[in-house]
């Protein structure tokens, strides 16, 4: 009985997926921003700069304020 439990859960989640659409677009977009930041930060010795760059990218209110100043 226990070996069939994961399969039944799998079938259940597949059956309810059309009624509950879930998109991973925002997550994939954020992962893409991190990849771009890694390419930009390549060669820097300071890891703190990289993590602060990721924080800067992840907070849209700070990012939009800095763009308005320029």
Please characterize this protein's 3D structure:
The structure is a single chain. The mean pLDDT is about 75. It is elongated, with a radius of gyration of 20 Å. With about 70 residues, it is mainly alpha-helical. Helix 2 packs antiparallel against helix 3. Helices cover about 70% and strands about 0% of the residues. The chain starts with a helix and ends with a helix.
How would you sum up this structure in a few lines?
The protein has 4 helices and no strands.
Order of helices and strands: HHHH
The major β-sheet equals: none
Shape: elongated
Strand content: under 5%
Secondary structure blueprint with pairings:
Layout: H1 5-16, H2 25-40, H3 47-58, H4 60-69
Helix pairs in contact: 2-3
Name its key features.
70 residues; 4 helices; 71% helix
């Amino acid at each position: 009985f226990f070996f069939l439990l994961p399969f039944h859960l799998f079938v259940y989640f597949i059956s309810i997926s059309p009624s509950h659409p879930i998109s991973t677009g925002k997550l994939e977009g954020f992962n893409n921003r991190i990849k771009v930041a890694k390419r930009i930060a390549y060669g820097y010795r300071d890891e703190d700069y990289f993590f602060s760059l990721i924080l800067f990218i992840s907070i849209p209110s700070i990012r939009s304020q800095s763009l308005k100043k320029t």
